Amino acid sequence: MGDAELRQWFQAVDQDGSNAIDAAELQKALALGNLHFSLAVCAHMIRFFKADTSRKGKLSKQEISGCLQQQGYTLDTPAFEAMFRAYNPERNGVMDLTCFIAMMIFLQSANATFQAFSQGQNRISLDYNQFIYACGNVV
Ligand SMILES: [Ca+2]
Predict the structure, then answer these.
(1) Contact at 8 Å (CB) between 52 and 58?
(2) Where do runs of H (alpha helix) occur along 15-139?
(3) EF-hand domain location, by residue (predicted)?
(4) Residue 90: beta bridge partners?
(5) Strand partners, 38
(6) Where do the domains of the chain lie?
(7) Percent of the chain with pLDDT over 70
């Protein structure tokens, strides 16, 4: 996801044009990606980013990894690194709230697609057409 895409996406999420994402805006954005968090959890996520004033509201790779583990995601290092790189266009090892939300929506979408094929197993086998279909369903 490039800078221009992220900016466009941020503007869509920032419904009142305040140049900041509040808890209600975050909740709506996540719901579009089929991620349903309570307003309290959304407010907590925003505080989590805002509290980090030393890096202007950006979280390090380790902090993001810890956050995903808290949410119950168990990614190995290569998978986490590849995903983090994809949502860290500046390649600076820290992530802002916009990139984090986009990454969470991708992760949820990837999980839903995986589960559609895996039928409860932790491994899937796809032929070429199924692979293309699966990729096409991951946002
Ligand atoms: Ca706003």
Answers:
(1) yes
(2) 23-32, 39-50, 61-70, 77-86, 97-118, 128-137
(3) 1-36
(4) none
(5) none
(6) 3-137
(7) 91
pLDDT tens per residue, range 48-69: 777 655 556 788 898 888 888 8
For residue 122, how far is its CA from the centre of ligand 1 (angstroms)? 39
Q: Report the separation in Å between the CA atom of 97 and the middle of ligand 1, taken as the mean of its atom positions.
A: 13
Using an 8 Å Cβ cutoff, are 30 and 105 in contact? yes
Q: Which CATH architecture has domain 3-137?
A: Orthogonal Bundle (1.10)
Residue 19 CA, ligand 1 centroid: distance in Å: 6
Dist. CA 9 → ligand 1 center (Å): 13
Distance from Cα 39 to the centre of ligand 1, integer Å: 15
**Phi, psi of 88, rounded to the nearest 5 degrees:** -125, 70
**DSSP run (H or E) holding 9:** helix 3-13
**Spatial separation of the C-alpha atoms in residues 68 and 62, rounded to whole Å:** 10
Distance from the alpha carbon of residue 134 to the mean position of ligand 1, in angstroms: 33
If one compares 35 and 54, the residue with the highest pLDDT of the two is 35
The model's pLDDT over 100-123, given as tens digits with 9 standing for 90+, comes to 888 888 888 898 899 999 988 999
